[in-house]
Amino acid sequence: MLTPTRILRQLPSCNARYYSTNVPKAFDEASLRLISDRLKNVPKLKFQFVDDPKNAAVLMPLCTTTDGKPSVLFTIRAAHMRAHKGEISFPGGKQDPEDESPRHAALRETMEEIGISNIDILGQYAILPNKHRNLRVHPFVGYIKDPVDVSKIKYNPDEVASVFTLPLEYLTDPAICSMQNFRDSSYKYPVYKTPDDIDVREIWGLTSFIMSGKDDANKKAMKKVLVFI
Length: 229
Known about the structure:
Helix content: 10-25%
Largest sheet: 8 strands, mixed
Shape: globular
Mean pLDDT: 81
Oligomer: single chain
């Protein structure tokens, strides 16, 4: 029985049998605790890396907008960036020598990119590769404790072109996504269409895989973060 008070093990895929119209009414204490509990049991995914890969970290920022909608915050990378320019992404970057851990790197990068520090880290998802497999990307899930008004976010224009949020109600609509392979692996994940008012029309790649995905090769739902059971 699907309810809005329990974390599902994955964001809904495009397969209707994984989809529910039940989405959380709010990120309350109980739902955030359940997200954290689910993240303690995420699967370890098998990817090949080059010898001696470096570490990087990203933060998937859950938030509540000023109109009370449980949402996910995204950035659009600046057009002059060397890598992934103009793409939708989560805050993140390489772990610096001064960073105590990938977790610290995720929080530092979030502060540097979008100026937000009042974040509770709920947990970490499985380590993923970048395109060249020379980075071990540590995806963290966090909740921004203050209500988010994107018009007031003072993002860093050297790295970020704009920011926006999408409500969970939108992200759980199966009509907005199509399934594709992640990198050259057997894992599949949904590529999301964005609303007409967003300049970049797709959420794909590592960002989309972090949000949601399932191992279609084994017909087995992977334990993810935000769907409710």
